[in-house]
Specification:
The protein is an alpha+beta fold and about 180 residues long. Helix content is about 40%, strand content about 30%. A hairpin with a 5-residue loop joins β4 (about 100-105) and β5 (about 110-115). The model has no long low-confidence stretch (mean pLDDT about 85).
Length: about 180
Amino acid sequence: MIRCEYFDKADSKNETDLNQTVGQIVLQPNHSLSWRALKYFLAFMMLVSFGIAITFVFFGYWLVLPFTGLEMAFLSYCLWRCLRRTSLQEVIVFSADEIRLETGIDGPDRTEVWERFFTKIHINQAIHPWYRKSVALVHRGDRFEIGSFLTTVEQDELIESLHRMVRHADAAMVPGR
């Protein structure tokens, strides 16, 4: 998912701020399952599995119970890992002078701040239709791929959004606007 926001000078409270934010692009992977739905699904699966396991315990097959516990623990861990991975978020904030890239899950785990005029957008085209292209921000040799979790259509939208944001930041640099 790509969300693009533009900020106007009129919205700013401090007109003398030279490093005024002109916009931001928020990138998130497709998030098909919420944390609440995960809890309900795990509760349902545990209810069914432990119900069957307790039935087997009454017939004397007590060894089923610990394996059911291990199975449910493994299922919970795997689903938690998948949902945590899809909770990743990348925020690219553009200002007249710099680009700030924040990545993280609950909050910004990693923040990179680069000078805007020395930052380039590199697009590596796919060598085959089965492969995907990559979009990266490069600043003086440091390369950081953005939107690696996006689909091909979303990557094209990201490229267009980046170009529009750069034009918007360039327009913010022109005095008198």
